[in-house]
Each structure stands twice: as C-alpha cells, then as structure tokens.
Model the fold of this input.
Amino acid sequence: MRHVFAHRWPRRRRSDRGWTLIELLVVLSLIMILVSLAMNNYRMSIRTAEEATLKSNLYRMRDAIDQYYADKGQYPASIQALVTDGYLRAIPMDTITKSTDTWTTVPAEPDPSKPTADPGIYDVKSGSEAVAMNGTRYADW
Done:
C-alpha cells in the first residue's frame, strides 16, 4: 500500500536545497570581518604615508635652511624667503594639517655682533597638535 502524500511533494535532492538563513548570516559575517580588517589596514597605510611625507618635507626644509645659512651667513627671515631665493620651489604642504600655512618656525639665537638684526628661522616644525603613531606629537618632530 502506497502512502497518499508520496506523489504530492517529491523529496528534494541536496543540490536543490539552496542556502539556509544561518549559512547566509555566517558568510555575511565573515565578509564583514574581512572588509573591516582591510579598511583598518588601508587607513593605517594612509597615515604611515602621511607621516613619511611629513618627515621628508621637514628634512627638505631644514636642509634648505642649512644651505641658506651656509651661502649667506644668516638664517632666512621666513619660509617664503627660501622660495624667493630659490632654495625651495614651493613651500611644502604639512600633510597632517593639509596646509602650507601652518608650519611653526623656531627663531635662531640672536647674533651678539648684530643685536639689531632679525635672527631669522633656525628650524621648522609641524603646526599640528595631533599625536603620531609612535606616540609623539607631530609638533615635536
């Protein structure tokens, strides 16, 4: 004797079954975890590149100040003087503040033989008060 419902709903094969809600949630969760890890790595690489560029810009400006002093026997009056006199093509951008106007200058010690002369710029630092990835402030670099 055959069962009455046997022909009404045939048994489905495993390949026809599809995805369950739990399987979909697990796959979506794994994708979200991988995307969040990738985004974190991307943000860290951007910040590392910005810090490396800031170090490079500081090095170039400090080198230009040293060359200016070696050539003229005095420190430049401003950062713009480095550009005007051809030691820099343009004032580099502070990659942390995204501006060329936020550089902080450190004045040189006054020359005792020229007490009325402007001492000029001895050093340049970033104008940002943010903290770098190594825990130091950008303004202290």
